[in-house]
Sequence to fold (430 residues):
Amino acid sequence: MMQAYTTNAAGELTIGGVAASTLASQYGTPLYVYDVSVIRDAIRAYKAAFATQPIDYSISYAAKAFASVAMFQVAASEGAHLDVVSGGEITTALKARFNMQNVSFNGNNKTDAELELALDSGLGTVIVDNDYELDRLSNLAVQRGQQQDILLRVTPGVSAHTHEYIMTGQVDSKFGYDVESGQAVAAIAKAQALPGVNLRGLHAHIGSQIFETSGFVAEAQKLVAVSADSNFQPDIIDLGGGFGIRYTDDDQPLPATAFIDALTPALQAACAERGLTVPTIWIEPGRSVVGAAGYTLYTAGSRKVVPGVRTYQTVDGGMGDNIRPALYQAKYDVLLAKQPAAAPEETLTIAGKCCESGDILATDVQLPRVQAGDVLAVLSTGAYGYSMASLYNRNPRPAVVFAENGKSQTVIRRETWADLIDHDEEYAGL
Ligand code: LLP
Fold:
């Protein structure tokens, strides 16, 4: 069964009420298009799920999934907060005039320049990963006469891999303070004693594309236990992101309510057991906010038939705009934009134009007859598509368009060949 999609009276694929063929001819291909209403609905679903629970909460959109000024403005308009991981994402938030008090800053190797930018911009919460960062942040804040709210990122020993989670004595991770070895308890004491920082709670992130609730429950229990072991009453427990979405029929995502209905009582029970007041709960969804909203439109080009083996249908983009198939063996549904519901007539492997055999967007997908010039749509590319795009082979990055209520607008301009050489300097030997 194909992912749900919308069509017009002519039976053509539409995105945000605009025909995909119109978007392709107006803006060119390859093109990223977001149905903004799907983004709004995803944020609203988390809010509605929390609204049924007796708990304070905050939904912090994980910017890394798709960072742009327009996206941050949509997140703000839906009341979401923002989690950033770089100076570039902070700069984007500033350009979007995001309320910086509602921004948190993750990352395991923040530079001095990034910490200074965070302090200068009034960023709400720095999520401190390690002692090297904690010491530098404390110093920088003291130098400026500032008091910076922080959470500590801990590695709770819970690791979720889509359909199961594992609880180990020590998870091998580059992120955060390890719980099992006592690093987390020591860090809480250290942070409480340091000037310039105000410890407000703990953060963890257990994985991505998760399809079950038990890992989050175990994570909440672990964060409460570490706090109680430190005689620390957190104001905030941040459980990170990772809520899974559907790419193909292989994926069966849970609704937002399933996660929130499981983790909220788990947090309350753990707090009651350990004598803590229930803190405000933060989550950081990225993929589940923007993933299903995004489409990539391509124009079909050359074709190679390997008799008895496979038919390669090439498109005008590829691994430069979507590295996920090559990097993670990720799978996607593909539609013929002009007739998405037409009966399949051929089995095609959708190949990109990069000079690399692994540049395949989808293997052996069923499609109606596809001809050169037809527009193909790859579905659910909204998360980690544009944000992981590269300039490999010096192919410019596509434009990003937002569509909503039957209208559309460019939100990131297409790069040009001239843009690609703009930073190049000539070299005549030294
Ligand atoms: N919070 C933290 C601290 C994270 O590290 C991440 C993702 C998130 C939130 C958001 O997770 P989400 O809700 O999007 O699953 N490039 C990979 C995904 C990497 C995720 C890294 N961290 C992909 O394309 O699948």
